[in-house]
Amino acid sequence: MLRTQIGDLSLPSPLLTASGTFGHDPAALAFLQPGDLGALVLKTVTPEPRPGNPPQRMAEFPGGVLNAIGLENKGLDYWRREVAPQLEQVSMPVVANAGGHSVSDYVAMVQAFSAMRGVAAIELNLSCPNVQGGIQFSTDQNALAEVVAACKSQAQKPLWVKLSPNVGQIQPLAIAAAEAGADALTVCNTLMGLLVDWRRRRPILANGTGGMSGPAVKPLALRLVWEVKQVVDVPIVASGGARCADDVLEYLVAGATAVQIGTASFRRPQAISEIAQELRQILEQEDLSLQELRASLVWPNPVSC
Fold it and tell me: Are strands 4-6 and 9-11 parallel, antiparallel or unpaired?
């Protein structure tokens, strides 16, 4: 009932983890029931270890979470040695997430992930708002096309490209990524935000700004999914504030093929299994399939004056 296809990749469910919310390895899968998670999307890995940003790096607000982790990770060598062997034992597709500061960084990550038997697809994180350098890839069409094309030429696995919401127009960037060879587009990364401690007259996060995720970003992300669907044919993986089955179905109707669950899992580690059960119940009660719901949004006709 929930089986989903993203290009050549067959998934047991349209529900995926969002990069950065389930860590670097399969340990968190213990919270979920078999068949509920479609793919395990792992935290970003960079060629060299990164300490990340100084604390305070995360803060809650009524609509979600603001984070400035800064891509903290132990680097490719550690990941290849300690994590990759664990991934070969995972019973579902694993999507590795690649970060970097240059085209050569991303190409090296794609080559390394392509050689790992436990990796089924590669997601390029070209749009993290919490690190210095590399951000031009998410905001400049030519730079985006260059890095995607270079990675595609070396990729032996499906290549997903994660787009940024922090742009004036997302459609030209989606077109550039698709034409350069992206097999799927993840829409979207976190939205730049600021939280202030007015008593101290300081930002709450040590980094100043951070990436906003959680329910507050869903309307924006829904719009971006719909806009991207209008201009590309590649599958869209939605990411942004989904926390229940209705949220997931909204994304599918807007044009997504699958939906990543991120911030919701911080509070409820079992959230993906709960959502999967809700989806099955709704589809059965409504006598609907995921396929007939996808990209079925009927846009209102403009009212003439």
Answer: antiparallel
